[in-house]
Amino acid sequence: AQTVTQSQPEMSVQEAETVTLSCTYDTSESNYYLFWYKQPPSRQMILVIRQEAYKQQNATENRFSVNFQKAAKSFSLKISDSQLGDTAMYFCAFMKPSAGNQFYFGTGTSLTVIP
Amino acid sequence: EAQVTQNPRYLITVTGKKLTVTCSQNMNHEYMSWYRQDPGLGLRQIYYSMNVEVTDKGDVPEGYKVSRKEKRNFPLILESPSPNQTSLYFCAAPRDRGPGGVFLKEYFGPGTRLTVT
Fold first, then answer.
1. SS3 state at A90
2. Using the beta-carbon criterion (under 8 Å), do B108 and A44 form an inter-chain contact?
3. Sorting pLDDT into bands at 50, 70 and 90, what band is B29?
4. pLDDT above 90 covers what percent of chain A?
5. Searching chain B, which residue's CA lies closest to the CA of residue A2?
6. Residue B100's pLDDT band (cuts 50, 70, 90)
7. What Cα–Cα distance (Å) separates residue A61 from each residue in A47, A48, A92, B97?
8. How far is the C-alpha of B33 from the C-alpha of B56, rounded, in Å?
9. Across the interface, do B59 and A1 touch by the CB < 8 Å criterion?
10. Is pLDDT at B105 greater than 80 in this prediction?
11. How far apart are CA B71 and CA B53, in angstroms?
């Protein structure tokens, strides 16, 4: 089974500052996808950003960017200019197409943005 | 609008009383799955289905059943619920195909909060 590890159960950041959430994964696959999902208090799971393993360029989505280190099997999420609405649980996830779209999630990092 | 719906959103029941959580998607996808979310454990897959009448166990299938008699519906069945099945449950279906037909996003329903006393 694939494993996804998020070693930071809780983090906090001042509004407008930058914060980085860590994620590592373990796989022997060469073709896979990595994701960050956000879960606000409403409990809805929202896709934040996606990274294809075959792409060397790090994905970015507005204030969200990733640092994808394939050799180190590391996939961190950077949130710039943090906003109060970024307060949420963040989950790192791994998917390998060879397993028919099966997703594997980390245990989550609870982020609090402090006004 | 693409949707994954679940019912009920909240359910409190007693040990041993059979229950079903329904899930429906309007995206005409073959693939659907069920997850449970527990504090400190993240989301864990219970069962998934690759197509009608094709289901398979995920990481934590014990105590659960599923059925897939039609493409749009994928109910989760607890034949004899126990307190350790108290959890937040999500149904999901993929969206947005990428290269090679790979689905690039797991689209989640709103969640069902289940409490078993």
1. strand
2. yes
3. confident
4. 75
5. B59
6. low
7. 11, 8, 16, 19
8. 9
9. yes
10. no
11. 9
Counted across chains A and B, CB pairs separated by less than 8 A come out at: 58
| b (16+ CB within 10 A) / e for B81-93 | beeebbbbbbbbb
CA B12 centroid distance within chain: 18
Q: Which pLDDT score, from 0 to 100, does residue A67 have?
A: 97
| B61 vs A: CB within 8 A | no
Chain A residues near residue B88 by CB distance under 8 angstroms = 43
pLDDT in tens, A30-65: 888 999 999 999 999 999 999 999 888 999 999 999
What single DSSP character describes residue B70? Answer: B
B31 vs chain A: nearest CA distance in angstroms? 8
Q: A33, B104: Cβ pair inside 8 Å?
A: yes
Q: Look at strands A88-96 and A102-105 and give their pairing.
A: antiparallel
Q: How far apart are CA B88 and CA B60, in angstroms?
A: 14
Q: How far apart are CA A26 and CA A79, in angstroms?
A: 24
Residue range B60-75: mean pLDDT, rounded: 96
B50 close contact with A: CB closer than 8 A: yes
